[in-house]
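[Discussion] Sanity-checking designs against the backbone

I'm trying to build intuition for which residues belong where. Below is a structure token string of 146 positions. I'd appreciate it if someone posts a full sequence so I can compare it with mine line by line.
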């Protein structure tokens, strides 16, 4: 007295649900997600400069910023880095002129170690503004307000 799963009951309904199409759709969605994640990671690797170890100061109003064309970092020794590579202010100026020549809208994110002197940070900010880049941000870590 076995029960046939595919047999209709007295009300005319089915006693089984076919899950094969559902599994097929889920596997296709999984593959699409995995492939698109790889493309996004490759794009981010090309846009974000490599990390330079700095201890960012904390600010309650800190926000996440998008990767920009001009990433300037001052480490604890006062060394300047442009998009992940060590550079001088002169080299940064050459890069800015080149990007402006290509018609890029220049934005700058300035990150400085909290142990670097205030004067060095002001010097970089002043240079950026003199080069005509008025759209810049100072990178900080978010501080929890108690």
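Best answer:
Here's mine. Compare freely.
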């Amino acid at each position: 007295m076995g029960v046939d799963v595919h047999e209709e009951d007295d009300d005319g309904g089915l006693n089984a649900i076919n899950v094969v199409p559902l599994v097929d759709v889920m596997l296709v969605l999984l593959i699409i997600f995995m492939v698109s994640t790889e493309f996004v990671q490759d794009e981010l690797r090309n846009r974000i400069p490599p990390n330079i170890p700095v201890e960012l100061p904390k600010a309650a109003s800190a926000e996440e910023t998008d990767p920009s064309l001009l990433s300037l970092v001052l480490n604890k020794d006062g060394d300047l880095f442009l998009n992940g590579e060590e550079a001088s202010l002169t080299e940064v100026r050459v890069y800015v002129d080149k990007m402006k020549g290509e018609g890029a809208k220049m934005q700058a994110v300035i990150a400085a170690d909290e142990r670097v002197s205030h004067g060095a940070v002001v010097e970089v900010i002043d240079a950026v503004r003199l080069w005509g880049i008025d759209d810049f941000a100072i990178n900080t870590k978010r501080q929890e307000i108690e």
